[in-house]
Amino acid sequence: MISNRVSKWWAAPRKTTEFIEDRKVSFIELFYDLAYIAFLSRIGHSFAANISWQGLTSFFLLFIIGWWGWLNGISYHDRHANDDIRSRVFIFLQMFFVIFMSIFSHHAIGKDSTYFILSFIGLQCVITYLWWHTGVIDKDYKPISDIYSTVYCISILLLISSIFMDESIKYFIWLISSLGSLIMALILFDLKTKRDVRFRHIMEGVTLSEAFLERFSLFTIIVIGEIIFSVVGGVSSSHHFSLQSFYVMVCCMFIATGIWSLYFDFVAENLPSDSNSENYVWLYLHVPLKICITLIGAILLHFVEFETYIVDFKYKFLLVSFISMIMIVTGLLNTFSKSTSKNRINNKRIFVVGILTMFLIPLNLNIYMLLIMVVFMLYIPHISYLVENVFMTKDESLTLQGE
Predict the structure, then answer these.
(1) Given Cys at both, which of 218, 271, 328, 359 links 354, Cβ 3.0 to 4.6 Å?
(2) Average pLDDT over all residues of the chain
(3) Is residue 9 part of a domain?
(4) What is the pLDDT of residue 6?
(5) Single residue among 171, 205, 239 that ends a domain in this structure
(6) Who contacts 1 (Cβ-Cβ below 8 Å, separation ≥6)?
(7) How many CA atoms lie within 13 A of 20 on its CB side?
(8) Same domain assignment for residues 176 and 273
(9) Residue 337: phi, psi to the nearest 5?
(10) Is residue 7, in this structure, part of any structural domain at all?
(11) Cα separation of 245 and 307, whole Å?
(12) Do 64 and 125 sit in the same domain of this protein?
């Protein structure tokens, strides 16, 4: 009886055959996401304090590291975790290392690089153990588990070696370790799928649950919330609240709601394609999307603090570029989903509007015109959708009534 109780509270990882298709996102998963949001908030504020190409590349590197940890954590939990003490312990342990990454992230590219990368190594060790142990328990899943474990062990060794390297090459090793893990895993999966029929059948059984996809939507909401936090923080810390501050704050709120509407009206409701390769594209397209949303919050913080109506070119270039990228990626995300012919038309419109948005960069616009034009470009897809699906539908019904 005691052994049964122990197995209930400290159960073995869930096997591939025990996949729960209609699983709901649990509260502990949302709690887990908050640790990564703290990390994104920290690196976003670091970029806001150093808006330059160096600051942008530093943000990109740290974001890739954090995203890789988050994606692996939620992938494991979705496929193999249980509602038991064991799963909670390993989730809290991952959060522990992510919190330390957040603490040292401000000077991760600098004096705290060793502490930061040691924290990430700890996170990688936990995730590597989880994938490896799953293969030990679930023999059918072992071929996939072995690939994950091998790739992550190589990544960990590279990260450890970077501690003893010169600053000029250390951060390049970090990038190679993170991106290399992603690319190497995909290559190994592809090669083994083509050569091994049994492995191909195993991969066909690995599907994305609705809860896993919902995590992307919920994470997007929280990241968009960072824009609101930045605006509120900028306004509350300003020395005086002026009419310009009020105008910028309202426009920033419209930008946040516009980004939210783009994603949840045109992306979130459409499931990814059944193809494994297209699923991976859909997942990784969220990387530039989340990067741009987070950086927009950092840029808008400076817009709130502007005391003149003249906008520095670098702020205008970055804001417009990030807005344009969000629209282009949104169109691409829907391209790799189970979208209808009507949605595919919307995809093209969003993509085209995203490209046209870039033409705002050379225009000599003050802060008022720039923000209103950005808001207008964000809402063009919705305006065209309403015109086509509401007003034209009414005209068609009136025509039919007349006949």
Answers:
(1) 328
(2) 82
(3) no
(4) 44
(5) 205
(6) none
(7) 14
(8) no
(9) -125, 170
(10) no
(11) 9
(12) yes
Domain that holds residue 294: 210-398
Q: How far is CA 27 from CA 35, 216, 300, in A?
A: 13, 15, 31
Residue 345 and residue 339: Cα distance in Å, rounded?
A: 10
49: which 2 tokens?
Answer: 């304090």
- What pLDDT was estimated at residue 142? 81
Give the position of tokens 């991952």.
94
Whose structure tokens read 């039919």? 400
pTM: 0.86
Give the Cα separation of 401 and 403 in Å (integer).
Answer: 5
Mean pLDDT (10-residue bins), the chain, 403 residues: 54 76 84 93 89 90 92 87 88 96 92 94 94 85 80 91 89 87 67 56 59 87 88 75 81 92 83 69 88 91 73 89 94 74 67 91 89 92 75 50 48
- What pLDDT score does 400 carry? 41
* Number of neighbours of residue 120 by Cβ within 10 angstroms: 26
- Both 91 and 146 in one domain: the answer is yes
d(CA 377, CA 369): 12
